[in-house]
Amino acid sequence: MKSALFAAVLALLSCAQAGAAGPANLVSNGSFEDAPASPGHWVIVEAIPGWQGDPEVVGGLAGGIEIQNQGFENIRAQDGVNLVELDTYRNSWMTQTIQATGWVRLSFWYAARAGWGAGTQDLGFGLGTLSGSVLQGVAGGTSVQWQHYVGLADLGSSGSAVLRFAAQGQSDMAGGLLDNVSVTAVPEPQAAALWLAGLGLLGALRRRRRRITRS
Ligand SMILES: [Ca+2]
Ligand SMILES: [Ca+2]
């Protein structure tokens, strides 16, 4: 009986572990690897798989998405070989619709473009209840230094929300860099509670076994 209960607890824990291991990235092409940039070059396009760029031409200047392949200006991508800059010919934006409800975790990597001053690198972002900007007042150094942003967003109950990035600050064809974007579901509180309850039951069984062994 005890061994059957012990096996049941182990099965419960392994189920909870399987559920917690590596939630799927809800962003399509989040590292921009599916894009037409050739080695060491950049290209500005209206859209890439998964992402729509600003399609307007303003004052003769297109918006779109600038894809940089690493090697251009000796930049190393944070993940893979491609990255994005959104001060293209002017300050531009890109969006992707995320299919999810409730709380999600937004993660992305960003860096100031080397050799460019503060006030031109600002990168805005938004998803559900979450919005903000990074690189405000930050100047680029002599090389690209990637930093990690993580935040929680409530997408509500409608089933979808728009993920948006936008170049801000001075519009001068140079801005903050972006790579490795992910949105993942936040584990249900019930799953975490189940995991903790399983651990507690396992500990109680082990303590009881030790007492039985001693007596
Ligand atoms: Ca990449
Ligand atoms: Ca700029």
Explained architecture:
The chain is α+β, with helices and mostly antiparallel strands. Helices cover 21% and strands 36% of the residues. The protein folds into two domains: 51 residues; 161 residues, Sandwich (Jelly Rolls), CATH 2.60.120. Strands 1, 2, 3, 4, 5, 6, 7, 8, 9, 10, 11 and 12 form a twelve-stranded antiparallel beta sheet that branches. Strand 8 and strand 9 form a beta hairpin. The structure holds calcium ion (2 copies). One calcium ion binds next to strand 5 and strand 12.
Which key phrases capture this entry?
215 residues; alpha+beta; 2 domains; 12-stranded antiparallel sheet; 36% strand; binds calcium ion
Question: On the 0-100 scale, what is the average pLDDT?
Answer: 88
**Beta strand count:** 12
- How would a crystallographer describe the biggest sheet? 12 strands, antiparallel
Global morphology = elongated
Question: What percentage of residues falls in helices of 4 or more residues?
Answer: 10-25%
- In the CATH hierarchy, the third-tier topology of the largest domain is known as Jelly Rolls
Distance between the termini: 20 Å
Poorly predicted parts = 8-13
Number of domains: 2
Q: Count of helical segments?
A: 2
Structural class: alpha+beta
**What order do the SSEs take from the amino end to the carboxyl end, as H and E?**
HEEEEEEEEEEEEH
Radius of gyration: 23 Å
CATH architecture of the largest domain: Sandwich
How much of the sequence lies in strands comes to 35-45%
Which compounds are bound in this model? Answer: calcium ion
Name of the CATH class of the largest domain: Mainly Beta
The CATH superfamily of the largest domain turns out to be Galactose-binding domain-like
